[in-house]
Specification:
- This protein has 231 residues and is an all-alpha fold.
- 68% of the residues lie in helices and 0% in strands.
- The radius of gyration is 19 Å and the shape is elongated.
- The N and C termini lie far apart (47 Å).
């Protein structure tokens, strides 16, 4: 296996850490443009710079390991500016997850809104996931990464992760029920587990192979589910 930035490599090969530019490209590909606030109004430039900077670092390095001082320094804002936009680090983390959630919703909504038959919409969603896994600097699922750092089920970050995952499960369930209502919910859980496994394995093994395996699994799931339709 050849050396690639930030991923598992073979014996004797050198580990290559992704550059900031590579991480930026991956972040925007995976999380989408973060140019709107929760109200749909474009936020201030300073707030956006803080959110973009924090999101890139959180995704690449984790949340607990990154302090507010580093975010302020890399975003090139004052401490007063930070606290004017985010009362505390937790607020910034939640904004990061909210933006990631919206970007993924936009990606899925684009596939659903294209007017494709449900099987094709599911394949389009899966293709989008596979593209994310193959992207340079990929570091897994932002939500699974975050919940590993916030295991308390009552914590707001944990709750944000659960809300995102429930939305994704419900969306896949709706598409599968459109194909065949019988056993749609178990099939949706199967899809989500395939996705989670691919996201985790994509950080450790050959991303192209993981993506191919994931897409093959989704294809088999769709065909098996469609076969439940009464003849």
């Amino acid at each position: 296996m050849s050396a690639r930035a930030g991923y598992a490599i073979g014996p004797g090969e050198k580990w290559l850490k992704p550059t900031d530019e590579e991480q930026d490209r991956t972040f925007y590909r995976y999380h989408g443009r973060m140019a709107r606030s929760e109200t749909g109004v474009r936020p201030s430039e300073a707030r956006q710079r803080l959110l973009n900077t924090a999101s890139r670092i959180f995704y690449a390095e984790g949340i607990h390991s990154v302090g507010v001082d580093r975010i302020i320094a890399e975003a090139k804002v004052t401490r007063a500016t930070f606290y004017r936009h985010f009362p505390g680090k937790e607020d910034l983390v939640l904004a990061y997850l909210n933006a990631a959630d919206q970007a993924i919703r936009d990606q899925v909504d684009t596939a659903v809104a294209a007017g494709l038959p449900a099987p094709e919409a599911l394949r389009a969603v899966a293709e989008g996931i596979a593209r994310d896994i193959r992207s340079t600097g990929f570091r897994g699922c932002a939500f699974l990464n975050a919940v590993a750092e916030f295991p308390d089920p009552d914590h707001p970050v944990h709750q944000a992760v659960l809300a995102h995952r429930q939305w994704f499960l419900d969306t896949i369930n709706t598409l599968l029920a459109t194909i065949e209502e019988t056993e749609a919910e178990p099939a949706a859980r199967h899809f989500v587990m395939l996705r989670d496994g691919a996201m985790a394995a994509g950080c450790l093994f050959d991303r192209a192979l993981i993506s191919e395996t994931f897409l093959r699994g989704v294809e088999g799931l769709i065909r098996t589910h469609a076969a439940r339709q009464p003849s």
